[in-house]
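Operator note (shift B, R.M.): manual run for DNA-(apurinic or apyrimidinic site) lyase requested after the automated queue skipped it. Running by hand, logging everything below so the morning shift can see what happened. Input copied straight from the record, untouched. If output looks odd, do not overwrite the archive copy; leave it for review.
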Amino acid sequence: MPEGDTVWQAARRLHDALAGQVLTRSDFRVPKYATVDLTGRTVLGTTPRGKHLLTRFEGGLTLHTHLRMEGAWKVYGSAERWKGGPAHQIRAILGTVDRTAVGYRLQVLEFLRTGEEERAVGHLGPDLLGPDWNPGRALANLLADPARPLGEALLDQRNLAGIGNIYKSELCFLIGATPWLPVGALPADRAAILPGLARRLLEANRDRPVRRTTGLRDHDLFVYGRAPRPCLRCHTPIRLADQGDGSRERPTYWCPACQTGPAPDPGSRRARETRPRPSN
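Run finished. Output pasted below as returned.
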């Protein structure tokens, strides 16, 4: 699933291409909205909210989309060939004289009255890249269920919005706790810095083509995708196991030496077989 910085970049691309422009083409390839025609309307802009995208049009109408695991918005010039996937994967087309935005594999696509956007995003916690960011509230949300595993709590968008599976693993490494440590068992000093650290990571990467959390020249990430290669700090092999987030199991990476707390036994059903991969 895309992380909050990826969605922020998608929103910026859509906003830069369409904001202030009149639509000359509008096509929504989902049964419920197949007859909707926005041709002639001005696009007011696109804003991200956590992992959600809100594209607003004159007349008080908002297109709400979510990329989920495989969705993408691509922007093309008027004469440019579309390359985001086969035509049957296209769910939305928004075109102007100069640019065309094409939504591929969008798992969520719905129209809302702009004044009712909270119906779609009102459940979200503070947005790590948004104007509503509130670290105190984010921390209180995380600690509200002290028995919940840290990794699950970080992925719950109701606690704070924008963290995906990559940042979950990287944040747990940076604060020295396994993703299975109960949130309430996290030392107070580490818990206090967690929301601010998460925000700094996403802010640092929202303008980058390649996500980096290490600050190291030859390595982009500390643990994610690196099992069973050596930890960049202690050289212990990175481990991989599945962890649920309330909806599905997700691959989770950690260093058993640098991170304290419970973790699946290497022989358990959740633990994965791993093979070395090329360095990133």
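Quick read of the result: Strands lie at 25-28, 43-49, 52-57, 61-66, 72-77, 90-95, 99-104, 108-113, 239-244, 249-254. The helical segments are 4-18, 118-121, 135-143, 150-155, 165-174, 188-205.
Leaving this for review. - R.M.
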